[in-house]
Amino acid sequence: MNISSEKRIRYGILALLFFGTTINYIDRQVIGLLKPTLEKEFNWTETDYSNIVMAFSAAYAIGLLGFGRWIDKIGTKLGYAVSVFFWSIAAVAHAFAKSTFGFGMARVGLGLAEAGNFPAAIKSVAEWFPKKERALATGIFNSGANVGAVVAPIMVPAILGAYGWQEAFVITGAIGFIWLIFWWKYYETPARHKKISKEEFDYIHSDNEVVLETEAPVKWITLFKIKQTWAFIFGKLLTDPVWWFFLFWLPSYFAETFNLDLKKPSLPLVIVYTATTIGSIGGGFLSSYLIKKGWNVQRARKTTMFIIAICVLPIMLAQFTQNIWVAVGLISLAAAAHQAWSANIFTTVSDYFPKKDISSVVGIGGMAGSVGGILFPLAIGMILDHFKLLGNITAGYNIIFIMCGSAYLLAWLIMHFLTNKKNS
């Protein structure tokens, strides 16, 4: 089976998911890169900024729950299109905010709409890839988040320097409307796609999981009675907030600890987020490789995720370095490990649940991750404001790194217990 024929359609679909996720993360990261500028413009404290991040996280949590169920009902094509359309509008709306409250409202709109990305993308992967390829496919499209995080530190400062902070929101927000044209023109499910070959269709369904498009998902409340749902919930609750920290606070961490100038393209941030791309694809590749070598799906996934959890631990050592490049190395390893974790934890949903219920479970777990994303920024704001008053904000970041380092191993232990066959 060669990639020029039998894989052409599904990898074209994967490219759409990759670029959609890239745009998703560019739009959400702009505010983190503009944080020093906006703090001066609107006289924000760390707590003010934390509240804005929390507003996004709360809206994202609500949006995940709603979009997850809705996409299972109406399908990926329309659901994803609606999500991108409204998040692009919300991203542009930041440019017209005149107050902290205005920014909060724009973040709420962005959070609600961006929540459709992962339920739609994970469901699309399950529709277009057999189980043995899903972790790698998820790792590839999820690496779009990392590419977005690499592009933004280059793109946003350049726009800020040339035009201003308002234009940074307008230009980045408008990209989503271009993507929408390609999505609407090229995406369909395999059963409806006019150009898919019989060989590729049969390969996609080679895991014998055939679900009629008219078959309804199970009742939403029923999903909460399944231990695998709770495994995904706790896995996301404990680890998602770490990525939010990397996304929204790393620029200011490097600025405040190592005097990094955020008005210029930032090489340390580019290195960190480039490493996450390697982690996302590598993590997806490892579990898919083990499955192809004959390991059962659960063993391959759990082993990979345990290795990933161990790789996050060294970030605790960041507190002992005065060298920016040592810090970049430790943080890069942890951030790459997070994306490797993300590629695998998303895939566990399609391991345990039928295609018709995937978006609903992803939405539920994603909501839990966003709840963590609400609580963790609150703690971050309090910790950093406290140590800023003491004149030692670096000590505050050190405490946060310890919390980040231990989160994944704890999550792995809980997930292992809940999905252990003896406890099922």
From TrEMBL:
<dbReference type="InterPro" id="IPR000849">
    <property type="entry name" value="Sugar_P_transporter"/>
</dbReference>
<dbReference type="InterPro" id="IPR050382">
    <property type="entry name" value="MFS_Na/Anion_cotransporter"/>
</dbReference>
<feature type="transmembrane region" description="Helical">
    <location>
        <begin position="229"/>
        <end position="250"/>
    </location>
</feature>
<keyword id="KW-1133">Transmembrane helix</keyword>
<feature type="transmembrane region" description="Helical">
    <location>
        <begin position="326"/>
        <end position="349"/>
    </location>
</feature>
<dbReference type="Pfam" id="PF07690">
    <property type="entry name" value="MFS_1"/>
</dbReference>
<keyword id="KW-0812">Transmembrane</keyword>
<feature type="domain" description="Major facilitator superfamily (MFS) profile">
    <location>
        <begin position="13"/>
        <end position="423"/>
    </location>
</feature>
<dbReference type="GO" id="GO:0016020">
    <property type="term" value="C:membrane"/>
</dbReference>
<dbReference type="InterPro" id="IPR011701">
    <property type="entry name" value="MFS"/>
</dbReference>
<keyword id="KW-0472">Membrane</keyword>
<feature type="transmembrane region" description="Helical">
    <location>
        <begin position="52"/>
        <end position="71"/>
    </location>
</feature>
<feature type="transmembrane region" description="Helical">
    <location>
        <begin position="169"/>
        <end position="187"/>
    </location>
</feature>
<protein>
    <submittedName>
        <fullName>MFS transporter</fullName>
    </submittedName>
</protein>
<feature type="transmembrane region" description="Helical">
    <location>
        <begin position="78"/>
        <end position="97"/>
    </location>
</feature>
<dbReference type="GO" id="GO:0015134">
    <property type="term" value="F:hexuronate transmembrane transporter activity"/>
</dbReference>
<feature type="transmembrane region" description="Helical">
    <location>
        <begin position="270"/>
        <end position="291"/>
    </location>
</feature>
<feature type="transmembrane region" description="Helical">
    <location>
        <begin position="396"/>
        <end position="418"/>
    </location>
</feature>
<dbReference type="InterPro" id="IPR036259">
    <property type="entry name" value="MFS_trans_sf"/>
</dbReference>
<dbReference type="InterPro" id="IPR020846">
    <property type="entry name" value="MFS_dom"/>
</dbReference>
<feature type="transmembrane region" description="Helical">
    <location>
        <begin position="361"/>
        <end position="384"/>
    </location>
</feature>
<feature type="transmembrane region" description="Helical">
    <location>
        <begin position="303"/>
        <end position="320"/>
    </location>
</feature>
